[in-house]
Amino acid sequence: MLGCPSLESYASYLNEHPDEVEELLNVVTIHVTGFFRDRDVYNALTETIFPEIIQKKRSAHDRFIRIWSAGCSTGEETYSSTIALIHLLREQKDDYRVEVYGTDISEESCRTARRGRYAGDRVTGIPRTMLKQYFEIDGSGYRVAPEIKHHVKFAVHDLFSESPFSMLDLIICRNVLIHFEHEVRGHVLANFHRSLSDDGFLVLGKSEAMSGPALGLFELVEPRSKIYRKRVLCVCSREE
To answer: Among residues 41, 147, 206, 218, which is most buried (max CB within 10 A)?
Structure first.
């Protein structure tokens, strides 16, 4: 696209033009997403996972629910999980402080997510009642309502680096790890394990599976939807 005759010349161009790094990331990263994509996953969250989290919070007198949407692309999945949880809390007349963090390696994707405006053909997967309640008509498209955006923050983050969050109740990272090599995948899953609270949940893509040391970190609780629960590791000591 730039007319560089070799990888070496392109590397030199990157060194001289730091802004090109973001353009490179936008070209090579994959952004396949959609609102409420794979409806059965959201059914599992609404019918099983969210109620369990809420019950745990109620028993502990904890009014905070924290979710991380990792590899969030342009925000559709992040907003979908937020809407699903807020809608359930409304139905149950429960009042919790919901904090949802969406992160992606692409600054351009994060900017789109922060705007929260989507063309009409991008919202076809949203149930009609939720579209009416949680979106506002904006010209030929729709904009996420302020009451949902209030709960969500987007930031650039590289999953290869350490996690910026802790004590999370749920991490959603779907169809991201499948593009990583085995060793890197294990590193990311270990970071997720450290970021989750005890008995916290992890949602992966349907074509993704754990292997190696990661199998000891999580327990599969919803096989069809690839939802895992964090295993609490026992740190044992012995007297010499």
So the answer is: 41
DSSP string computed for the chain: ----SSHHHHHHHHHH-THHHHHHHHHHS-----TT-SHHHHHHIIIIIHHHHHHHHHHHT--EEEEEEET-TTSHHHHHHHHHHHHHHHHHT---EEEEEEEES-HHHHHHHHHTEEEGGGSTTS-HHHHHHHEEEETTEEEE-HHHHTTEEEEE--TTS--S--SEEEEEE-SSGGGS-HHHHHHHHHHHHHHEEEEEEEEE-TT----GGGGGTEEEEETTTTEEEE----------
Query: pTM, whole model, 2 decimals?
Result: 0.86
Q: Which residues face 219 on adjacent strands?
A: 229
Task: Say which range, 16-25, 51-60, 148-157, has the weakest mean pLDDT.
Answer: 16-25
pLDDT grade for 135, boundaries at 50, 70 and 90: very high
Long-range interactions of 175-183: CB distance < 8 A, separation 24+: 175/32, 175/71, 175/205, 175/207, 175/208, 176/70, 176/71, 176/205, 177/204, 177/205, 177/208, 178/205, 178/207, 178/208, 179/30, 182/211, 182/212
Give residue limits of the domains in the chain. 39-230
| CA angle in degrees (0–180, nearest 5) for 235-66-199 | 35
Tell me the residue type at 112: T
Q: Which class would CATH give 39-230?
A: alpha beta
